[in-house]
Amino acid sequence: MKKLVLTFCLLLSSKLFSQSWKEYISQNALPCGKNLELDSSLYHSFKDYRLIMVGEMHGTLEPAKMTEQLVRLLLQYEDSVSIGLEIPEKEMSAFLQNPSEKNLRESRFFSKPNEDGRNGRAWFELVRYCMNEPRVSVFFYDNYVSSDVPRDSIMYLEVKKQAALHPKNKILTISGNLHNQLIARNGSKTMGSYLSADSSIFPKEQICSIYHYYAEGTMLNNTGKGLELTTIEFQESDFSSGKHENYFIFYDSAEPTPNNCIFFTRKVHHSEILDLKN
To answer: Which of these, 33, 58, 35, lies nearest to 121 by C-alpha position?
Structure first.
C-alpha cells in the first residue's frame, strides 16, 4: 500500500502540479476538526458536486464518520440528501419496509458474522443516523446477482436509479476504495468509472471521488486471512508533514490518478465489532 501511495504522489507531483505535492498540500489543504466536524466554509468546496463517492478500507471508522458529518453539513444548506452504502438491499429488506432500530439490529446484514469489516459499528451508526434524519433517503446498492454481469455495473445502475428517483438530492455513497475510483483498474471498470462515463445524470464536473489516506492506526478487516485487526505503523510522508491533523485536498482531474479528492486523517481507527446487546 505504501508503494502504491508513493507512486500516486509522484504522479500527482509530476503531471498535475508545477510545485511539489507537499507544497500543494500546504497551500490548498482544507482542515476538518479533531473529531471530523466540518466547518460551514467547507460547504462551498462540495456544493457544486451532485455525486460524492467516499472510499474506505473496510473496517475503519473515519470514512463513515466523515460521511455523516458531510451529510450534516449539506443539510444546513439543502433540503434533502440521498446516501447509499455498499450493502445488498435484500439483506436490509425488513429495515427498508419499516426503518426502526430493532429492524436495523435484526437485519440480515448487521446480525451476520463480521467477515470483511463492513457490518461493524461504523456503518451501523451511519445507517442509524440516516434512519433518524427525515431529510435523508438511504439506499443499498451492492445488488450483485450473477457472474455474467459485472458487480460494479450493478452498483452503477443502482446509484443512477436513486438519482432518478430523487432528482433534487445530492447523492453520497460509501464503498471500498476501489469501487469509487473514476478510472478503470487493470482493465476492469469500477462503479466510479461507469458513472463518470455516463453524463446523462452526473456530468463529470459534478462528481467527487474521495480517497481516504492515513499515517497510522488500526483497521479490522479481511485481507485474505479472515477478519483480523491490523496495526499500521507511522511513516512520515508528504500527507502527514503539514500542520493539519485531518484535511481534504482537491485536485482538478482524475488522470493519472483514480480519484479527485483526498481525505487525510493522521490516525485511522478500526470499526468495532457490533455488539447487538448494547
So the answer is: 58
